[in-house]
Protein 1
Amino acid sequence: MNIVVCVKYVPDATADRQFESDNTVDRVGVDGLLSELDEYAVEQALQLKEKAGEGTETVVTALTIGPEKAVDAVRKALQMGADKAVHVSDEAIAGSDYVATSLVLAKAIEKIAADSGSPDVVMCGMASTDASGGVVPAMLAERLGLPQVTLASVVETQGDQVRVKRDGDTATEVIGGTMPLVLSVTDQSGEARYPSFKGIMAAKKKPLETWSLGDLGVDAGQVGLAAAWTTVEDTTARPPRTAGEIVKDEDGSGATALTEFLASKKFI
Amino acid sequence: MSEVLVLIDHVDGAVRKPTYELLTIAKRLGEPSAVFIGPAARAGGADGVTEKVKQYGAEKVYVVDDAQIKGYLVAPKAEVLQQIAAQALGNGGLAAILIPSSAEGKEIGARLAIKIESGLITDAVDVTADGVATQSVFAGNFTLTGKVTKGTPIITVKPNSAAPEESAGAGAVVEFAATISDAAKKAQIVASQPRQATGRPELTEAAIVVSGGRGTGGNFEPVEALADALGAAVGASRAAVDSGWMPHSFQVGQTGKTVSPQLYVANGISGAIQHRAGMQTSKTIVAVNKDEEAPIFELVDFGVVGDLHTVLPAATEQIVKRKG
Ligand SMILES: Cc1cc2nc3c(=O)[nH]c(=O)nc-3n(C[C@H](O)[C@H](O)[C@H](O)COP(=O)(O)OP(=O)(O)OC[C@H]3O[C@@H](n4cnc5c(N)ncnc54)[C@H](O)[C@@H]3O)c2cc1C
Ligand SMILES: Cc1cc2nc3c(=O)[nH]c(=O)nc-3n(C[C@H](O)[C@H](O)[C@H](O)COP(=O)(O)OP(=O)(O)OC[C@H]3O[C@@H](n4cnc5c(N)ncnc54)[C@H](O)[C@@H]3O)c2cc1C
């Protein structure tokens, strides 16, 4: 079985995230890491491999698109247990929108397929932690002509059959599909493992390739900020909220003050 | 005037409020055409979908019976919209396609963008007459404005992005027979369990949300009682959901629901960035937390440093009394 797991390198959400003067995300000035939501995807990919067992050869390839530092994202995936990694890096990609990002991912997956066999599962996170579009997996399914079994909180497989639980907006659904398919998993799908010391050491010897747009046969004019089908006109920091009144509860004074406040704002 | 397609948000033909918000926004951009993908039998009649969307300005209602496609995830709906868009483009032009920014809506928009080679903007909280969309990003710390520059703008719009405005539309019904490919029928909806009604307002639509976190210690009664006294929806932090105290559908935050109510009351919630991502744009924020250093207090208009298990029941009692 072949599994490609798409992982994104994102600025740390707990750091002071900023935009550049061209309205793109500052991906250099702020510390980055493998998107926490993509750790769940790596975990599910590894569980599929473990379930397939020793007898079947399962290869988990971690794939990322991003600047030089984004290699950290696939390194972490290798440390967790992925077998191979691909880092697509090309200055022309900077500022890409959903459409271009999904194009480059699809082309990279096609190249992985040509080099080492078609993926049975293209695994994704539910959304990135920076832009949190939650749309790239569906776009990948559309581009690759694969079924999409997305936003899974529980994943079950039997041979090439996949069943997942999806907490929809108005219903909880069970979605079924047959491999090959695009699968995305939520943060309810089960805690991701930490890299072990052994895993960290082993990762250093695992194959890691860096590809440019040229390697993928993608014309630089199709991607990046200038080619985007959407444009950002302006980014503004939200004004900080003005400091509110904070009272200490003593012998029930808190409840009274709270009630007074709610009444003064006409919520009662 | 060009058409603006609005995908109707509904459950078995019961139209949900975001539909009216989208129609209100659509009127700014062109002539609203509502798209109903659902049981055709629910389209007509005094209580039907057509009557409802007409009142909010739908000039046209495309009715697509979903009997053949309701068993499949996302892909068929994208094909339906692609075909309606092609027809509208051929008629008088198509100014935009507005889709509710639900998980499903965003995925429909994603596939549609690739199909019709158009740009996609997700999670808009406002759209102006000239198609400029506003997004609230980075946990609500930044506001971003942007536009689609290629093809027909596809914009997914969050709940509460506009106050629904009634205005009579013609509501001309167009029964649309879509052709769905076999490829779109590969992800099957094997079973579906509708969410149980809570008897409280819908979390994403509520004017007031009262939430509880790890600090409840698993006892949500004080939170729920305060919510009921205020006529509010109940929310929860991920810690409360992960502990199994509340279902995931109650979760507020980055990987739960985004809410932007008039009043948000956070109880026993520390205020992690991922929780803020779901509530930071609320009009008024109140917190009850026993730790005066809790980061949630940086956001509040009013805060009580105290034990929620004593503060909430006492406040609830006073509120109920005042309401008489
Ligand atoms: C605040 C903000 C708002 C934006 N809004 C828009 C918009 O409205 N329209 C638009 O076209 N673009 C928008 N963008 C650009 C968009 O974020 C980028 O194109 C981004 O590369 C992909 O979107 P995402 O991170 O939201 O992916 P998501 O759709 O949230 O990602 C889901 C999954 O796809 C995979 N994936 C995504 N990106 C990569 C990657 N680089 N490498 C490997 N796997 C990946 C991962 O598995 C991930 O979990 C926005 C960017 C920002 C920062
Ligand atoms: C990728 C990712 C996505 C995430 N998505 C979400 C999300 O969508 N939503 C979300 O909420 N979190 C999310 N989180 C988790 C988030 O980081 C926090 O862990 C979580 O919000 C903490 O929940 P809490 O505030 O209830 O618990 P804690 O942080 O443990 O805070 C509990 C608070 O309760 C107070 N307290 C304790 N006892 C009492 C009492 N008797 N009376 C009053 N106060 C009391 C404490 O002082 C403390 O401040 C996400 C994390 C990651 C990494």
Protein 2
Amino acid sequence: MLKIENLHVRVDGKAILKGLDLELEQGQVHAIMGPNGSGKSTLSYVLAGRDGYEVTEGSITYDGVDLLALEPEQRAAKGVFLAFQYPVEIPGVSNVYFLKAAVNAVRRERGEKELDAIEFMRFAREKAKVVQLDPALMKRAVNSGFSGGEKKRNEIFQMAALEPRLAILDETDSGLDIDALRIVSEGVNALRSPERAMLVITHYQRLLDYIVPDRVHVLVDGKIVHSGDKTLASELEERGYAELGG
Amino acid sequence: MADGLLSVIPKAAAAGGPGWLSDLRALAITHLEEQGFPGKKNERWRFTSVRDVVDTAFEPDPTTSAAFVDEALGDDGTWRVVLAGGRPLLGDAAPPDGVSVRSLADVLATDPDLLEGHLGAAVATEQFAALNGALFTDGVVVHVAKNADVATPVHLVHVATPGDAPRAVYPRVVLIAEPGSRATVVESFLTAPGGSARHLTNTVAEVSVGANARVEHVRITDGAERSLQLAYLGARLDRDAFYGSRVVALGGALTRLELFVRFEGPGAEVELDGVYHVDDGDHVDHQLRVDHVAGRCTSHVRYRGLLDGRGHAVFNAMGIVHRDAAGSAAHQENRNLLLSDDATIDTKPHLEIDCDDVKASHGSTIGALDAGQLFYLRSRAIPEREARDILTFAFVREILDRIGHASLVARTSEAILARLPHGEALREGLSS
Ligand SMILES: Nc1ncnc2c1ncn2[C@@H]1O[C@H](COP(=O)(O)OP(=O)(O)OP(=O)(O)O)[C@@H](O)[C@H]1O
Ligand SMILES: [Mg+2]
């Protein structure tokens, strides 16, 4: 479903990704771990299509199409979803309005009927249950004044509503307390399905105890230096990244 | 110059009325004759040229009806008076309880004492306020009774009807809110379909807010290509009074508002909110001045601008805290969203403080849409052009919401969306 080959990316003239290869099959969950600044968020932004990330070499193929040729909104409409490490605050735009615009954009792409205000509210209330999102947060401006944990919940709430085929979760666990981590992880697990692939970026094995990955990759200095099964996460936690080369 | 705007002045001197009014007119005329009209050397006129206006010989606007207004505004839950040709078209419908709404000419003829100390009190030296002072013959007097709580907004709809030659109106509005009263007054400035020549609306509104009274004053200008709006609005507040000014200025060939506020008693508060939008051919200028004469008063100036096309906006706010005004708080903020490389904004909020015990802040920003926010919306499948409009509208929404009255929030929101490139797409969604 997703094939990244020899990906080289520069940001502001600085090389960040230096020949990254990764392949993800439909239905699989892969974890990416790696030290601060190794390029994990850069990879997630390149997948989502953010401006300012210059791909100097390599390719990304998603469902057989050249992902890099698509605008961010086209990627999203085709099922790519990024749960941001730092969700963006948008004062003046209500969460409900925002998500309705998003859901209907995706529905248009899929050839489904757009939801009207009443249908959408019913739909949104169902989806909010996935992560036990406080309904009051739906009326507030997008992420505006949300606590760190509320923002992360809001990301997974959006993921539940948009039903992506490829979800990239960038440190969704950071900022969550123990209970929230469990709730959000259960929400993510509920969204696992044979049609859906996930790339889970994290620093902590704890998250991977809940969301058990099929593969774990170690990203150091812009390259995958090691891949293994789920036991790699605990190994890393014990021994650190240094021993795995980089 | 003799053929232009000033050529009508001598006639004005002959207008009748009580002695204090004649004195006032004489003062205005002297001021105009001595000062002439402002040029670029005048600091407050550096970015707005009126040479064109001054050289034009405007005829009086003879219009006596404006049938399109009801359809244009619909049932907005306000009590409306239309001013056509600068004169109010007062029907038989009684105004809301606690408020009287009369024609200024009528009050001057029958009850001039009511106006003494209110009419002419706020207008000092601004040239276009003086012009109105010299030339006005009619307008509206809104008088809110002591302790009255008037829920229904009184809505003055100023209609400019352009003809085939340049026309002008000089209506004057006097709003007196007696102590302890509460009221909302709305002024809308509309341009009727009509001829192709320019139309000047030169208004002065004078607002007196009595002790412990609360006045909300909404001002909505739908600018047009042919419309020239040169307005002066002066508000004076007695002790513990509140005045909320909500200004929405949407384009226009020349739309200028001078908004001067004076705290005359302690413990009063003003909120001066504004939203403006300029696009090709628009020039919108706001000049604010807040005089903290009495102590323990609070002023908040919050203006936001949307700058598109080759539009030009000017914002200038001056907060003056006088020597004895201890415990004052004066805040000014002007934020601008630049939507095009060709739009221009000249912004200058500033404070003059002659007193130690003051809380004050001022600042202005000019920025483009936030790239991070734009990407966030797009990463959720929202097309770029729609995302841009969502963020553009969000930039001013908070200020629009403070207009308070739902039908007016809706009307101004829709008017702004109509001016955005893809605002249509947003309309339906706003109701949710
Ligand atoms: N605009 C930029 N200009 C220059 N360098 C940048 C820019 N954006 C990111 N970088 C650099 O790119 C590198 C990779 O950043 P990235 O955010 O991808 O790291 P990460 O692996 O997600 O780290 P963390 O675990 O801390 O989230 C860092 O060294 C960062 O400083
Ligand atoms: Mg990161």
